[in-house]
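Marked as duplicate of an earlier ticket. Keeping the data here for the record.
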Amino acid sequence: MLIRLIVSIGLGALSVFGLAHAYQSLRATQTITAQQPLLDEGRYDEALSLLEAALKLQPQNPDLWEAKGRVNMLMSSFRPARREALRADSVAAYRRAIALDPLNARRMGHLVEAHLRFDQPEAALALLRRAYRRDPNNAGLYYFEGLALQRLGRLEEARSAYQVSDRIAPRSDGARGLQSLAAGN
């Protein structure tokens, strides 16, 4: 009887935890969805405030950290005086998302994109090596590699990366990268 009670309590706790986790995931999704119209309207500070409030409630949610990295990255284009602080915040938020969900290559791809946006092609290339181990068939990663190499003036290597991207996903960004190289950009 005692064993049955302990098992029952344990299963009850697991189901409550499962419900709580599902509820937190739903709230994170709602927060990310709610901040999108703010971004579309250029209301970056409000979107960031919304995400920061959600992160206080769910600091272990990688989706929220990833969204915060994206908002900071977008804001940096429109706030040149705060560019360096926003760069640091964006990179830190993406790194936190990756630390919480280390097997997710998409999150790594977003950090690579941030490094490229912030003129850090060497950092992007270093991270790509890790990202390829997670998802070797991700055309977007090869496209980002092509961008990084192109910015470093390593044009033949960039061409190869764009070709791999295009081979994985025809008519993707890789094809656009190849056109850019052909045009001399």
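See parent ticket for discussion. Residues 1-24 have pLDDT under 50 and may be disordered.
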